[in-house]
Amino acid sequence: MEVLLYNNQPVKPRRRLAATLAAATLFGTVLGVGTTAYAQQAAPEVNLTPSPIQQLGQTLYNDGIYLNSRYLGEFAGSVSGGQRQGTDYAGELNFGATFDMEKLAGIKGGSFHVLFTQRHGNNLAAQTINNSVSVQQIYGGGQTAQLTIFTYEQKLFDNMVDIEAGRTDMPDSFDVSSFYCDFQSNAICGNPPDMGKITTTNFYAVAVWGGRLLITPTPNLYLKVGAYQSTNNENPDAHHGFYWGTEGSNGYLLPVELGYKWKTPGAIANNRYDIGAIFDRASYTAPYYGPGTYNNESAVYVQGQQMVYQTSPNSPRGVYVFGEAMLGTAGGKQVSNLQAEAGMIWEGPFASRPNDNIGLAVSGIHYNNRYLNSLYQTRLTEGGAGYPDHNLIMTELHYSWQANKWLNIMPNFQYIINPDGQGFSTYSTHNLPNAAVFGIQLYVDLPTLFGIPTKS
User: What residue stretch is flagged as signal peptide (predicted)?
Assistant: First the structure.
């Protein structure tokens, strides 16, 4: 995980935090002492005695238990276009930890990861705009409590080989960039949204059985292969996010990715280019194509990211660009044939605000003809008119303000071109006008707030 620093402290991470029961118990008993803890950290010259929570956190850290937790909230309001206008809020609280098995049990290179999540709120895109891709990336995967990560990781041969397996999700390791979740839009954050329209992949925060093998034969070259369960349990019912059985499985997915990376001195992230494929061996239905079930719904993708401008040598400040494209290989049986996205992050746009950033990105989904023909017939049956648009295009512009060591506030503007009308339970009877959305994302790093040491 790559982490920015604010006065040598972690701030809003590029990937979701690894997190645990110990943390849940820990933070649940001390809510309300955060202000004091932060005040002590912000003014060390006072030389106050560490609070009990800080002492406990330091003890766990020294023993090899690295606590992580965050609260992420996202407000969104549509001001024009779509089915109608309105506002909504969604959020997630998570608790977790990484257990260093070398310190705890003498297993060199071993670590154990646990993450619990609690999601809540509503989906503005689906319930108001009538669009299938959310403008609040934190919504989805069941608005409930879940065990989202429960994996064991083992590094071997001086970290040349890295194996991780357990309860997890495939998109956490494949076709992912450290920059995607700088954005609030689900068209950018997480993974390309088309992955869920081209394959039967399950997404965070829903865990499935799976694992991946990462081989780094040279410092620059890497190969990843994996195997993951596919399940129709995309949105677990309330209080049912801890089921570990295989009932409901549709099959499995086999991803592979080959990439090349290098680092610009001082940059916050690697420059990286990779190519990958997802071999989907899960069964699915495609009534717009024909009766029965199908399989072999696979995809190929390419992606890259690079620092293209640096304000000064060895500085993290500068401009980073990224891009990705995914192509479905099953033709008319897949909802979408092609997806692409591109964007940029201007890190530290002002010398006085080195930990802020400005982000701009655009993402597009191309729906296939057979799928749109089916939607068109549904529209005519309901008394509507107009052939559906082939392309759904979503954009976001934001300013990410690192208010202090533990708080990030990110106002953003999103624009949806050709909302697809697939957010509601019934399909839109006409093509919808383009939608304008204003959003605010709130990120709270809870360990830093309470003065607890963490490890990225």
Answer: 1-39
Into how many domains does the chain fold? 1
| Average pLDDT of span 232-258 | 78
User: What residues make up the domain containing 344?
Assistant: 5-449
- Report if residue 201 sits inside a domain: yes
In a domain, 456, yes or no: no
In sequence order, the 6+-apart residues with CB closer than 8 A to the CB of 99 are 20, 64, 65, 66, 111, 112, 113, 114
Task: Name the strand (E) or helix (H) holding 92.
Answer: strand 86-100
Written as one string, the DSSP assignment of 378-409 is: HHHHTT--SPPPSEEEEEEEEEEEE-SSSEEE
CATH number at residue 401: 2.40.160.180
CB-count exposure of residue 223 (10 Å: 0-12, 13-18, 19+): middle
Instruction: Give the pLDDT confidence of 344-384 residue by residue, as tens digits.
Output: 999 999 999 999 999 999 999 999 998 899 999 999 999 99
pTM: 0.86
Chain centre distance of CA 266: 25
Residue 122 lies in a domain: yes
Place of tokens 């407000």: 75
Instruction: Tell me the torsion sign for CA atoms 327, 172, 344, 216.
Output: negative
Whether 455 maps to a domain, the answer reads: no
Determine contact, residues 196/186, Cβ cutoff 8 Å: no
Residue with the two structure tokens 């993974």: 191
Q: Which residue has the tokens 């044939």?
A: 337
Cis bond before residue 205 (omega within 30° of 0): yes
Distance CA 190, CA 202 (A): 12
252, 318, 355, 369, 443 from 350: Cα distances, Å? 47, 10, 9, 47, 21
The C-alpha atoms of residue 203 and residue 170 are separated, in whole angstroms, by 7
The answer to whether residues 116 and 209 touch, using CB atoms and an 8 Å cutoff, is no
The span from the CA of 172 to the CA of 153, in Å, is 14
Categorize the per-residue pLDDT at 330 as very low, low, confident or very high, splitting at 50, 70 and 90: confident
Closest CA to 37 of 453, 448, 455: 448
Task: State how far the alpha carbon of 169 is from the alpha carbons of 208, 216, 231, 412, 446, in Å.
Answer: 6, 21, 11, 28, 24
